[in-house]
Amino acid sequence: MDYLVLFCIGVTATTIGTLAGGGGLISLPAMLMLGMPIHSAIGANKVSNMVSSFSSFFTLFRRKQITLKESFWLVPFSLGGGVTGGVIAAQLSSESLYIVAVILLAFAFGTSFIGKGGFSGTEPLKLTPVSGPGLFGIGIYDGLFGPGQGTLMLYLFSYLNIAYVKSVGLVRLATFSSCFGAAISYILSGAIIWPLTLALMAGSVTGAQLGVRIAEKLRPDYVKPILRVVTALLIVQLIADNVM
Known about the structure:
It is a multi-pass membrane protein. It is found in: Cell membrane. This is Probable membrane transporter protein. Keywords: Cell membrane, Membrane, Transmembrane, Transmembrane helix, Transport. About 80% of the residues lie in helices and about 0% in strands. The protein is an all-alpha fold. The protein has one domain. α1 packs parallel to α10 (about 195-215) and α3 runs parallel beside α10. It is globular and about 45 Å long.
């Protein structure tokens, strides 16, 4: 029964995560409620995210929605930011991490109402004084805390006037990059419960493909409202978790 539940969790969390980010705040609490040890749950999340993120990126790359030239330079920025964030996280309390997460998500939520971007643009991703530091900064956040990383990146790409489907592919590549090192670490540590992880992974890959297909049909003017709803829910859950 747990395998079926984990498969459904993977489908739901990754579909939502592909469209608007925030999938980790669905899958991780659900796995903990099923009784998985915390390190095994986080490890399962990282392994499944690594595989599902690459599958959705590769699907969009194969359909020529995204090119290697404009996408692969973001990998070192995401990796470098993630490593930096991991180092900083070791020096901060969990309460401080929650405060940072809420402030960043609230800032993104507020700017979504005044930002010029709306995912209807046709600009390629280029290294600029905004894109480079932005990707590195979000990478730091991912290494510091993580939940909401994909949502913040979508806000960044919206500001950069990049089309929504292309933005989804870029976010998934960045997520693959940031999860890769963490997944390897959890595998080597022996924390992975493989039968449960594989069930979650199967659901995540299914959800990633479902999310990509929905994204290709989603009208750009619907994306910002969806992002705002997800962001508001992320903020509420983070505050509730910290209070409890």
